[in-house]
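Archive record:
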Amino acid sequence: MSALDEIKKQVTSNKVVLYMKGSPDFPQCGFSANAVNILRECGVNQLFTVNVLENPEIRQGIKEYASWPTIPQLYINGEFVGGSDIMTEMYQSGELKKMLQG
């Protein structure tokens, strides 16, 4: 299975997927830590995470999959939402919580 096939399977078989550096308990960058904190504040209990530092093919593939150059990347119901800055804006406006409840 190619990295892009694996990514597609991950984002379509899980409601909320976060590609990040590190893990939710031990994020390896401030942007990933911010993303996890926002999702926790929104009440997300079922979070599928992928540590891109463990797999260079996924790390590069996820950038191609969404045509988005940075990590973290959030997917909800198979759709790309955005990175840390977009998540922050959507959280502050209440839009992210609505999306997660849908």
